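Crash report, auto-generated. Payload:
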Amino acid sequence: MKIVKVNKGAIFIEFAIVVTLLIGIVYGLAQQMTTLLGEFDHYALATELIIGPQERSLAFNTSTSQIEKLSAATSPSLAEFMDTIGNFFKLRAPNESYAAFIILTHINIDPEQGTIIDVDDTTFNDVFLYNFGNGSSCLSAANITLLTGYARRYAGGKTWHVVEYAQAQGNQPTSPNDDTGRFGSKLYDLDKAGNRVRRYESLFPVLSVVMCSEVKSIGLTKHLLTYHSLIPRRHLN
Amino acid sequence: MRFVINILKQEEKGVSLISAAIVLPLILLIMAILFDLGRIYLTTIFAKEIAISTAKFAVSFDPDTSIPELDALINPVSGEHEDITSSRRQFWRDQIDQAHSDFHGLTYFTKKELRVFNLSYGFMYDMNKDVAFPIPSDLDSKEDLAGKVSCSIYFNFADLVDSTILNQNYSRVYYVECAMPLFGLGMFSSLIGSDFILIKKSAYAYRSGDINP
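Recovered output after restart:
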């Protein structure tokens, strides 16, 4: 009789192990699916930012006839440009745990050739944060410092990567009709007394966005971070 | 001794049978629920993908396609009852009926809006030919879905204040709503309150056109 009890116990332990394993697998899959869905929502939101409202991302100084970066003195100002995107981000965010760390960086362009010169890194410290001001764990003091740093690193890394790649490819056109390495946004391209003359914007703006949100599942809340490089749709009027 | 062993074997068999009787239905139930969860997951991604694509079509300057009749924007489930097909047609009437809660804001659709519908419903059909559209009006049971997922694409204006100003470039919020009949979770319909689930995703089409008919 004792042996029978031991066997019964073994079968019930087996049963308990199988059920626990099954529940564990289901729970793991559910976690993975929730995370992937959250990530998918981030990318969808980034797509909406691209086609959503934007101010001009560059300013034209009529007294010097130069294209300039946005600043507090330009119209629109850098803050106005960012607010248009940031407020739209808040309008479309699926829930209030969302936060976005946004930087506007620029690649310096040769205005005659349209080729890449280098990265303008003077705006890397201007990180704009958009959030709902609630208890989202994306917004703890430690995380704000951490994510601001991530945003700077990502913005710098991406833009320098573009520059280094272009330079490694030998980004110099050999003739007026050669398009090799011409990267900038073209202002005009015309025939002047038999010579082809092109002119490019001297700056190429790039938006870097680090998006953070909370992914909630049974008994576990974690951060979800995604990184996005967006090219502003509007440059100059 | 042999007698004792026989008793032991019989007891083990009994325990195994009880164990199987408990585990098997549980496994089948979990599989049925997983089947539903998997479909919900895929349908959610599907709806979001269609919503984003529709917003992209809408913000394009001039979508290059023909202008469809509203009644042509229907894909019934093969062999479904005519009443359900009529109910799908009714979905479009509700959209332009001021008295209905689904009224989209105007009593007509512009040519561009119809083109966008043509592209987006066409895109949805290309992605999955088994998806019926639109969702029958006043859906209240999964019987009306004939076992298939039904999806509707529609929009509301984000900034329409005065409908007499025709030439303004208005923004629209496009919605993709999918009704999915439940299988495993359907066994808990008394707890959930329904034997189908509605999944709704949206995308913002900023300044996606005027309202000239």
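Post-recovery validation: The helical segments of chain A are 2-51, 78-92, 141-168.
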